[in-house]
């Protein structure tokens, strides 16, 4: 089109290559403007950047998709990582509350991308943001102000974007695990012995050192505040396999309670089961779906072949199973 205009308006005939050479510097400027990012630093206790990433991990000989919640303090670059089997809104909230407990307080604001569980709408032109109402309630509960980076420009949240990649490469890649619990234990050790004490390339000092010196005291204390999701309390009937069902998963109770109604209390990733006001079982809450968590001791007394307890084929009778 430029060549046509030159010929029509000025009578100049040029090759396409000549035009490309003439506008090369303009193309470089446009590209540089598109990529340009102003680096900014936040004050201690000012901002927490959050994001999710996913990857497949070898667990007990099988490849499983794991979702990594990564939270990075804007000033000290101290990082918190949590593991989930999904990326639903509850995972974002549990991850954030885990970060608040890990750091011992909250920042004044949260910087996030435009994840659907958190942001209903973000107008590119007007920058008008419509946050999910439940997420806004969560932020009000913890007295933090949410901020969403511009659509299609996640590098404005670059500290955490790089943090997700760092966790994948440094903490997970090349490792295999015998169970989800082993993966969680590895994650905790990695945060403590690697991420917290490494020499950070930008700040020039270990995140934990910078955190303890300048940032810990600036965080807003959480004062043993209960989780936003609070405590769920439900009534369930004990099935003939000595289990109760919760969110498609099954949890065992002593077999003598078969047919009885029990109270199921869900809080802080624990499933407590009470009968007549007394706790009769406690299991870690499964983050998967359609799994069974069985304590072999709950089946003692159900005599099967050769005196072994009867269990469903999907359950390993030699150990408690948590998927």
Largest sheet: 6 strands, mixed
Compute the number of helices: 8
Q: What percentage of the residues does DSSP assign to strands (E)?
A: 25-35%
Helix residue percentage? 25-40%
Mean pLDDT: 84
Radius of gyration over C-alpha positions, nearest whole angstrom: 27 Å
CATH class of the largest domain: Alpha Beta
Q: Note the quaternary state here.
A: single chain
Provide the number of structural domains.
3
Shape type: elongated
CATH topology of the largest domain: Nucleotidyltransferase, domain 5
**Between the first and last Cα atoms, what is the distance in angstroms?**
62 Å
Q: Which residue ranges are poorly predicted, with pLDDT under 50 across at least 5 consecutive positions?
A: 305-323
Compressed to H and E, one letter per element, the order equals HHHEEEHEEEHEHEHHEEEEEEE
